[in-house]
Amino acid sequence: MHDKIDLLIINGLVVTPQASFEAAIAITDGKIVAIGDAGCLPEAEEILDAAGLAILPGAIDVHVHFRDPGYTHKEDWESGTAAAAYGGVTTVFDMPNTIPTVATPDVLAQKHAIAASKAHVDYGLYAVLGEESIDHLEGLIEAGIIGFKCYMGNTFGRIPSPSTGAMLELFERVAPTGLRISLHAETNSVMERRETRLRAAGKNAPLDHLASRPAVVAIEAVERAATLAEWTGARIHVLHISSKDELRPLAEAKARGVDVTGETGPHYLMLSTDDYARFKGRIRVNPPVREPDNQQPLWAALESGVIDMIATDHAPHSAEEKDRPVIWDVDCGFPGVETQMPLMLTAVAEGRISLNHYVKLSSEAPAKAFGLYPRKGALLPGADADLAIVDLNAAWTIDDAELHSRSKASPWQGRDVKGRVIHTIVRGRFVLRDGSLQAETRGTGRSVHAIQQMPAPRPRNVDKTLVAVTRNDGA
Ligand code: NCD
Ligand code: ZN
Question: Does the beta carbon of 81 lie inside 6 Å of ligand 1?
Answer without folding.
Answer: no
